[in-house]
Amino acid sequence: IAALVAAGCSHLKFHYGAGQTTSASPTPAPTTRPAPTPKHISADDLKKLRWIEGTWRGTGVDQPPFFERYHFENPTTLFVEGLADEKVDKVTETSRFELKDGEFGNNENGSRSVATALDDNSITFDPVFKARNTFRFQKESPDSWKAILTWPATDKAPAGQRIYNMERWPPPKK
């Protein structure tokens, strides 16, 4: 699984982008699969995702901690910031998930992913073009959630999965 992570790959681009291998060779072409069926979503539906708002510390196997902030800029746009470190005072990158014509998704560097499932505790995104991975944000508690990234097999690489544990930052006082 670690071979799926590109050295120095940014977290936001990794979450929402194509995912890359660590080898010097180009990323293998994805196998053909049917286009995802976007879930029709309204601004009211997006209220179910409000649990994701906040600043988070992410960890995973063979993964140094990273920090991200999620907040709704308006009822239809989720803004995500990659943060430099635990001080969470320096933004290193940004991403937006926007609701347009009933589809909630993001466009990053020419790739696009769209929400295909949404309920009170999770949202799942599937790749539309120039992206390989599916990703799911799964609420575990008010102060934790998991980002679950899944890649299909290609003719040069096996299917894979990576799970990031996201915990509210700084940790709530008890």
Explain the overall architecture.
The protein has 174 residues and is mainly beta. 3% of the residues lie in helices and 48% in strands. It contains one helix and ten strands. The chain has one helix spanning 11-16; strands at residues 54-60, 63-74, 77-83, 91-100, 103-108, 111-119, 122-129, 134-141, 144-151, 160-168. The protein has a ten-stranded antiparallel barrel. Strand 1 (54-60) and strand 2 form a beta hairpin. The protein is globular, with a radius of gyration of 16 Å.
Task: Describe this protein with a few key phrases.
174 residues, mainly beta, ten-stranded antiparallel barrel, 3% helix, 48% strand, disordered N terminus
Q: How many beta strands in the DSSP annotation?
A: 10
- What are the segments in which pLDDT stays under 50 over at least 5 consecutive residues? 1-10, 18-31
How many H/I helical runs?
A: 1
| Strand portion | over 45%
SSE topology string: HEEEEEEEEEE
Alpha-carbon Rg, integer: 16 Å
